Give the backbone structure.
Amino acid sequence: MSVQKSERRLRIRRSIRTKISGTSTKPRLSVFRSNRAIYAQLINDQEGKTLVSVSSGSIDITGSSKIEIASHVGKTLANKALDLGITEVVFDRSGYLYHGRVKSLAEGAREGGLKF
């Protein structure tokens, strides 16, 4: 990732974080994407606690595309959230475009039962 691209993402990320925050009833679904993996976590910003976290390394799925893996991560996160009684979240794409793996993770979470 070039310096300009990473600076742009961080600037967008800071802008997004000034507008949204998570609570205990409606936590923030934060997404981090690396070249090899995708991570998602539900965060209560009022207490500064992570409620649920899932990554592509923590689930057992092989031989699939990155987009399919991201969708599975979203579904797994939704299942864990529903077990805790969480049905609504605020989506934080962390400055990434809503496209590809980020979109697939969001759609997987919606299929799993979360409402954005």
Summary: The radius of gyration is 14 Å. The domain at 3-112 is CATH 3.30.420.100 (Nucleotidyltransferase; domain 5).
